Amino acid sequence: MAERIDEEQVRKVARLSRLELTEGEVEEFTGQLSAILEYVEKMNELETDRVEPLAHCLPISNVLREDVVKESLGTEKTLANAPQRDEDFFKVPKILDDSFGA
Amino acid sequence: MEYKVIVGLEIHVQLCTRTKMFCGCAVEFGQEPNSRVCPVCLGMPGVLPVMNKQAFEYAVLVGLALNCEIPGFTKWDRKSYYYPDLPKNYQISQYDLPLSRNGFIEIPLKSGRSKRIRIIRAHLEEDAGKNLHSAGNYSQVDLNRTGTPLLEIVTEPDLNNGVEARALGVELQRIVRFLGVSEGDMQKGQMRFEPNINLVISRDGREYRTPIVEIKNLNSFRALERSIDYEEQRQLAEFLESGKVIEMGNKTTRGWDDQREVTVLQREKEEAHDYRYFPEPDLVPVELDKRWLEEIRSGLCELPITRQMRYVNEYKLSDYDAGVLTSERAISDFFDEAVKAGGDPKRVCNLLTQEGLRIAKERGSSIAELGIKAENVAKLAGLVESGTVSASASAPIFMQMVETNKDTWSIVNELNLIQKSDAGELEAIVEQALADNPDAVKDVTSGGKKSKKARGFLLGQVMQKTKGQANPKVVSEILTKKLG
């Protein structure tokens, strides 16, 4: 039996994902996520010692493309769905800390 | 009290592929904003990334040059990321199975020594776009850079000061340029550094470690070196004042203020670094068999530091000259070719570093682009070596070689620059000069303080008569013979 996920964990994951949840949603998702974890927990009943970890569910590898330029969308199409634009840029709320964490 | 600075580096290097990592958009610096963007870059629903083979091969090549183990199986992972310069809300990166690991890089230190810095891993990931903050109370986003192949290289904390970190940066730049996998242009942000720094302090028989500080996004060698030097002093002062030591979760991030030359606190970490990696379902793994690996390995060349050491040890060049010659592969290849064609290494080096680099710089090109033949430079070196032309005549000859691309010999003949060393021929000219200048001859023979100056005057007269083609050494010998 998996340890059920609690509301605090749901709030933390929501915060990390920049999601705003109502109290009702926190309760709802706590239940749903716990159910998912319980379901996945079933797999622990299986003997997996001699099973290789799976990196991908498709039995294929090396899908690669040649380094050949294809036409891009162009600035107008690129910005067509932007909620806001500023000349050729996407316009977004002021970013305070954007030190690329790569 | 004693202390030691401990530095590890994370380096991001943009690979110079024609297209982005997962789509066919062109990788080009300085284009109109948002003009190199497609649905994959935009993270539109339903799009599928496809891996750029060239980017993968370049990355493996660097891994090999950094003496890494290259596993036969590698995969991609998603790293949560919530800034608008990567609209997918995740970055495709590599987590537990990077394409290379456990390597090392040799960095040159003063006095011809080198130090080995261990490499933990080098993996591929996609770059983010650019956020601009100059306009008013909002930010602008340009996604042209989004998805550019980026190699992240992580070192062990084997560096002990800013100078070493800088040396590693410079060496890595040389390597990626030698391999032709990146332009390594700092001003275009093609190489970025993030040092992790702390101090190990010994006091009263006890050892203390200060909290680790990560400095973000340094894009010059100078900033890399200075920021580490600054942190060394800042952390020392902080420790003396507060006694604060490393603890779980007290690593902080600081930025570098280039104007004031100080680091500035950006954030205390905690959960901000919970990246929640998970396997990227949209990309299948890459399996690298022996044949493919060997094919990639064939792109390796002798590394710059190896060449530099060879120039110093075999050719007895100075460390400085060897460094200049190996700053770019084209220069180094040219030098090797000229030496192979029989040029004396020291003479060829002088010709290239003095004449060649000067002319190349004036024309904003590289030595290789000057259109001269290495073989002709070797010939010129030979002519200087044998005294057939004077060292000072080599400058106009070199210039003519660039301008006309004619054979060295024909240029020397056309410019009439063959140095006269024939004693018989020169003797007649010397005698003429002596006859023309009896006062100077008197000054020399009578000795005294005017003697030396008068001797120089006579030598000058001979040089003038021969239009500078007389070998000064031979003339001097004749003068001594005649005047004592």
Structure explained in plain terms:
The complex is a heterodimer of chains A (102) and B (484). Chain A has helices spanning 7-16, 23-41, 75-79; strands at residues 64-65, 85-86, 89-93. Chain A has 3 helices and 3 strands. Chain A has a domain at 7-44: Histone, subunit A (Orthogonal Bundle). Chain A has a two-stranded antiparallel ribbon. Chain A is an alpha+beta fold and 102 residues long. Chain B is an alpha+beta fold. Chain B folds into 3 domains: 9-196 and 266-293, no CATH class; 304-415, no CATH class; 423-483, Arc Repressor Mutant, subunit A (Orthogonal Bundle). Helix content of chain B is 40%, strand content 20%. Chain B is built from 16 helices and 17 strands. In chain B, strands 1, 6, 7, 10, 11, 12, 13, 14 and 15 form a 9-stranded mixed β-sheet that branches. Chain B has a 3-stranded antiparallel β-sheet with strand order 5-4-16, with no helix packed on it. A two-stranded antiparallel ribbon of chain B has the order 3-17. Chain B starts with a strand and ends with a helix. In chain B, 42% of the residues are buried. The model of chain B has no long low-confidence stretch (mean pLDDT 91). At the A-B interface, helix 1, strand 1, helix 3 and strand 3 of A face strand 2, helix 2, strand 9 and strand 17 of B. Strand 3 (89-93) of chain A pairs antiparallel with strand 9 (138-142) of chain B, so a sheet runs across the interface.
